[in-house]
Amino acid sequence: MPTAKEIGACLNDSTRENLLASLSAVHTDNSLLITTREVSKLLNYLTPFLALRAKGGLEKTLLIDDVTSVEEFRSMCSAYKAFTVIMAGNDDGISHLKRLWSVLDHKQSATINLIIKDFGKAFYDLLLLDVLLLKNSSFEQFSGLDRAGLIIRLTSNCNLLPWKVYPTLIHDFVFSLNMAHGGLPAYLENPLEVESCLNTMIVDILSATTSLPEVMKVKNVFSKGDHSSLLVRNFLDDKFCDLLSQFSYPQQEFYLKKLSGNTDLVVLERNIDYFPLILTPMNYMGLLDETFGVEDELNSILSTKDVMDDELYQSLKHLNFGSIGVKLNTLAKMLQLELENSDNTQDLAKIKQLMKNLGSLTSKQEMVRKHTRLSETILERIKSNTDSGTKFDSRQIWLELQNEIFELDYKNQLKKLHSMIDQCFPFEILMGLVVLISIINDGIRQNDMDHITKSFQLSFGLRSSLILRKLFDHNIIKVNTKGSDFFGSFTFAKTEIETTTVSTLAKTSGGSQTDHDVGYEDVAAVGVSSGQDVYKSTYTLISKFWNLHPVEEEQAPGQAMAIELPLDYKQPSFALPSATVPLTARLLEALYTRDFLTYKPVNNTLRRPNWNNLNLETMLKGLAIDKNICDNLENRKLSSEKRKIEQKYVILVLLGGVTKSEISVFQHLQAKLDKQILVVTTGVVNNQDFWETMK
Fold first, then answer.
1. Could you give the CA distance from residue 387 to residue 399 in angstroms, rounded to a whole number?
2. Burial of 409 (0-12, 13-18, 19+ CB in 10 A)
3. Could you say which protein family the record assigns here (predicted)?
4. What crossing angle do the helices spanning 348-384 and 284-292 adopt, rounded to 10°?
5. What is the DSSP letter of 507?
6. Nearest alpha-carbon partner for 662 in 271, 283, 201
7. Can you tell me whether residue 549 is helix, strand or coil?
8. What are the structural domain ranges in the chain?
């Protein structure tokens, strides 16, 4: 059974080989490598610079976004006759190339080799028109390009080499495109681009397993949300054919008719649940990101320059921050005891063995010291708020409020908000509280929203109005027009779960779709924006039904079990405040087990994974797909052991990025469900990315 690590290594090898082949094809001695800081992170992740230098004849590297002076830039470039330029095939890449072209002395006829990551027609059009200033028909030229060839000749001294980059594996089982801000802006503003990129990623991952001992084949597909379902339909209608085209005819016959399916494809999107973006993560890896920031996600480097690649970090990163203090103290005492015992050793053989282990003990001690230092700094910043301009512990107050916000009523939530505005809390905390109040109460009443808007304008000026406008446009904050009178506080306009008895999807027990779900609910927004209001029921009812805030059973003193792994937590509620479980995690979990549905238990009557009788269409807007695509899983003659062997992998596609709190929750579910989960997404997203997107 290939692991995510083996699949990731296979994809990384292909990406690296593509790059080295391009460098070999344009090898020029004493050339200058020009790239960007973001692309350099990928280069460092794939291969040491010495390997790149040998393949491409590179003498020196220049990060173009680090050069601020035009004269400095021109001076550095004038010393070289050959340039190897590695850029991303997006708007940022075009901007950097325009800057490079403006300082080059084209009279010297320097050789320029452009290696473009994820080259496409949009980039080619801008390259010809805005950089090379060629006015010919770029459409005709692009259609006539030999893109199967390695080198595309643009001018007499400029060549272009497309660089196919495969998904990169980060954080155990997360395959990422590493898009800007986790891909959240692209998801909200250009969902078709995200859908296309993720579909290509799925094919790349499935293709990678054809060279491994066991091949992944999709058996069931599930999606909830209009853009999620669009992705699934395009995969089945288009991309699946691209996968088959890589095989010979006999291989296609075997793949389609003989090979058993072993993979479920589940596609969900960010507009289902914004809580993981607003709430402070409580797992160690999430708090490190929240407190210090990550400078290089691919190479696990914090902004403090600490590298998070040691074995101790791997054992701590998914745990709740409250669980790791005891573990660090225990490890420190054990290591100290071992070192003290070594001082009393007299036996020669034991001394020799000690000398061999001394380096290991010292390195372990350094690891414990590093993570103890980081943990203490996290606590210090939460309590003292030393890096902020406020005169009080705003972070601690905000964290405490997150742990009680779901228990407060609407009136007290607003009271807290206005009190914090008067105390001049940071903008992101105050606006985050507005988002929480809106989601929890299904909107904010118009009079209250007017008051909030005026308060923000007085405190923060025009930028608050612009951000509020964007939050309204994406339906993250809503105005509750039904809450202006006495009866408005009741849920007459919402769908009650208790009155619903129909199946979530109108389909047969075998999973074949009927005419019920042939169209998108909000067809006008499909392909334009993912900022849709997807809640049909009240959040209170959704939270109760899906058990989004499970109550932990109190244990007697001395009976609490030590936490060593994410599976040791009884509920996947350890990574967010208020014991919050991401709704995306519950939707995934419900396909395989329903033991967490305590408010209104629903039995699973089918053998195959499914969402039947879970009332998804009465609670959440958006098209849903639940389909078996390759064989009959409902065959009741199959033994439970046979079915367990067949169902091994889950490819979970998340449109709009994944948070580090969700990654830890999926790690918990992976162990609980006994399945290999592969998360496929545009990138890791956090609270800072969310607010940068809104700006």
1. 16
2. exposed
3. Belongs to the STXBP/unc-18/SEC1 family.
4. 60
5. B
6. 283
7. coil
8. 4-163
Residue-wise pLDDT tens digits, 29-56: 888 999 999 999 999 999 988 888 888 8
CB atoms within 10 A of CB 514: 10
In this structure, whether the domain defined by 4-163 belongs to CATH 3.40.190.10 is answered with no
Closest CA to 129 of 647, 345, 314, 121: 121
Are the C-beta atoms of residues 264 and 591 closer than 8 Å to each other? yes
Report DSSP state, residue 120: -
Q: What share of the chain is helix, strand, coil (3-state, %, to 5)?
A: 50, 15, 35
Burial class (CB in 10 A: 0-12, 13-18, 19+), 355: exposed
Q: What is the dihedral of CA 146, 147, 150, 156, to 10 degrees?
A: 60
Exposure on the CB side of residue 28, measured as CA atoms within 13 A: 19
Name which of 171, 179, 194 is nearest 654 in CA terms.
194
Cα angle vertex 269, ends 268, 275, to 5°? 115
Residues 6+ apart with CB under 8 A from 690: 184, 274, 277, 278
69 or 279, higher pLDDT: 279
Q: What is the pLDDT of residues 507-541, one digit of tens each?
A: 434 444 443 445 666 676 787 788 889 999 999 99
In the DSSP assignment, the letter for residue 14 is H
Model confidence band, residue 142 (pLDDT cutoffs 50, 70, 90): low
Q: Can you tell me the mean pLDDT for 154-181?
A: 92
What's the pTM?
Answer: 0.90
